[in-house]
Amino acid sequence: MKIDRRAAVLGLGALALGISTHAADNDFPNHPVRIVVPFPAGSSPDMAARHVARVLGDTWKQPVLVDNKPGADSLIGTQDVIRSKPDGHTILLTISQVLTNPLLRRTANYDMFAHLRSVTGISTASFFLAVPASSPATNLKQYLDVAKQRDVSFGTLGPGWSGDMSMVALERQAGVQLRRIPYKGTNEIVIALGRGDIDSALLPYNTAQSGADKIRLIGTMGRERFKLLPAIATFDESGVTGLARPSWLGLFAPARTPNDVVQKISRDVNAALRNTEVTQYFDSVAFAPFITTPEEFDLFVRDDYRFYGAIVKTNNIKLD
C-alpha cells in the first residue's frame, strides 16, 4: 500500500497540534494566577474578585491572588495587565471604564480590542440614583428640578466610569449640568454622601445599603423596578429614556493570550459563578451572575463600546 508522504506529514502535524492544544489547556495554570483589580480593597469589584478567586484556587490547585491597583481612573491596573505576559496568569477584573478610557483619553495608550481580549462576564447590577437622607428630592423629577435651580454635585469614579457617562446623557436630555466630585471607590462616595459632602451619586444596591440610614435612593437605571425596592421608579418611568444599561463586572486578558487558555478560564470562572459560596454572596449584594462564553461577552462589550462611543461623540467629550 502506497502512503502519501505529504498527507502523512500533515496528519501528524495536525495530531501534534491537537495534543499541544490539549496539553496547554491541561497545563494551565502552572503557577500562581494574579487577578488585577484597578480599584481599592473593599470595593465591589474587589469583593467579587476575592469570592471568585477562592473558588478558582480550589479548582486550579494554585494560589489565585487579588492585586488591587487603583489610580488614574483605573488606567494603572489596566495597563499593568496589558503589559503582562499573555499566558493567562495575569487577568483583569474591571468595570466598563475599561471601554470608556480609550474613547476619552489619548493618554490611555491602549486600544480596547487590540490590546485586551474578553474572557467572561462576572456580574451585573442596576445603578440607583442616591441622595443624602436630608435632600428635598424624593424622586428623579424633583432631583432634576433642584438641579435646574442651583448647583448640584455628583460623586463619580471619574469621567470614564459608566455611571458618569450615563449622567452625561441625563444632563443632555434633562437640560441640567452637575458638578463632579471624583473619588477612588464607591465606598468613599457613600461616606461622602452620608456626610452631605456631595448632593448625589449613582450607586449599585449593595454599596448604597452600607449607608442606608444616611442616604435615600430615588430612582433606578434598571430596565424594570428592582424587586427588593418596588416603590422606586425607573428612569424610563420618570421620563428619562434610553439609559437603561446595567453596571457590570467582567474579566479580560492580554490580547495575545492563547484561545485555549481563555476558554479554560471562562469555563472555570463560570463554574465558580455557580458555586454556592459565590451565589450566596451575589444574592446578598443584589448582583446577578453574568455567565457568558468569551464570544458572547465580546459581543456584549462591543455593544457597550458603541453606546458609550456615541455619548462621547455627541457631547464632544475629551479629557486630554
TrEMBL record:
It comes from the Bacteria. The keyword tRNA-binding does not apply. InterPro entries: BUG, Bug_dom1. Residues 1-23 form the signal peptide. Keywords: Signal. Belongs to the UPF0065 (bug) family. This is Tripartite tricarboxylate transporter substrate binding protein.
